[in-house]
């Protein structure tokens, strides 16, 4: 098969697997591994024709970029807040996990001591490529998410380094304790030189404008790979530690380009994950799969049910970590790409060194990846909610900008049992909302403090509602990733700024809320004219068309704000997208107050004609 065709097959299978996993709401790694096995040992479609050394080196380059991207996501401000827990998980956790994992691999799985210790080191890693998507899906609070994120990203290179030193200790004849410690020192030196100093110099050059904007992202990728390669020349597999340190340094330098650089790396990481999790399992052989026996299955259960809880218990003993977080950490530890890549590297190398039972290494690690990803991925959300560490539901509105109109909106949503949080940088504007029992945040929504302290996991939509169109657009752009751009709205832009050649494009702002005429000034003028927030529930006999017949033209005589779906989910109206209004939908609208009584009388007559009670047809919320 031509190499171009093979590459296209691998890319297509990887992206298709990720898409299918999203549709089925399954962890992507499980579907990717299944696709790799189907294309490799089952059908034989993927035949790379590369030596084990060449394949290992290519896999290492991909893993290096993935770990760098994870390092960029680590904030030192989080470490300062959660340092007590993070230090225990990243300093005490790895050696404890290595010790217990190695003992279990020997006495339960029946592996020889060298292979058992290497496997114990590999299983120290907890897979940031799996953890981070799960955290976003589970909507954990900031503190719990920080613990899992830091542990997953920092322990990956530590586990690999432990595996490297263990491998060298057992396979190199002249290696002893002194050489092993020297190797560890060399790895730390390489990480400090190429990762720490190299990362700082890269950021310094970017700040000075020494690199053209269009070259910054691709040049950074090349520099990461060079740092990885140079570190490996000093100490085998020290490159993974180096790129993690480099990611942390650059990610915390407050570069103007940081967000665009990270977006580039995130997109590249998705491609690399898709490719690697197709290629690595495709290299499995049926003879290796036959190595999975009752001892291996027992070992996997011990890893999940005994080793992980015991490691967390001892590592956090006496530490200032909440009991709920300890319980969550004791269960959640999915393994990912670094564990798979490490097993692919050390398994064949140990076999070549004379340890035949190392054939079991790769299938054991893949089995643990599948079991942990499924077990932890499918239970994280429910467990976190039961422990009070995650939002019970995602159905609410974050309003940026306190005003008389947003106070009326917040009151109406509160009566509909929808969570509302209003944020503003001026406390005097928030005072009236606080007196009404509305939850408030006093501060800049785009600040570092808000990022770490503001709990918004339970909120599903954002409305930027200040009197500044461009600040509203900035907020929507910044928060679009958190809420989803389809759930990010802002007040209509003023007429002067809405001309075809002068307006902000949709890519630079949020969706226009409610109606193109619903500007900050217009909404408050209507409020002064006596308009109020009202609700009505659609039915088979009273649909949206009948509502329009009664109230008049939407946008000029009254304003559709949003409402609740028949399942109780919040939605906001926008002229830029259409929403199907089915029977059972509760509409929230802004209209003259005298319309309320007339509409209620009309619905009462129609309800009597259809032999329905008015109470079943309409529950109205007033200001």
TrEMBL record:
Compartments where located: Cell membrane
GO MF annotation, one: antiporter activity
Main subcellular location: membrane
Gene Ontology CC annotation, any one: plasma membrane
Acyltransferase recorded as keyword: no
One of the GO BP terms on file: potassium ion transport
Region of interest (Disordered), ranges: 598-623
InterPro entries: Cation/H_exchanger_TM (IPR006153), Na+/solute_symporter_sf (IPR038770), NAD(P)-bd_dom_sf (IPR036291), RCK_N (IPR003148)
TM regions (residue ranges): 26-50, 89-109, 115-135, 147-170, 182-206, 213-231, 237-256, 268-286, 292-315, 327-349, 361-383
Keywords: Antiport, Cell membrane, Ion transport, Membrane, Transmembrane, Transmembrane helix, Transport
Domain Cation/H+ exchanger transmembrane span(s) in chain numbering: 10-385
Annotated Gene3D superfamilies: 1.20.1530.20, NAD(P)-binding Rossmann-like Domain
Membrane as UniProt keyword: yes
Domain RCK N-terminal positions: 398-489
Membrane topology: Multi-pass membrane protein
Protein name: Uncharacterized protein
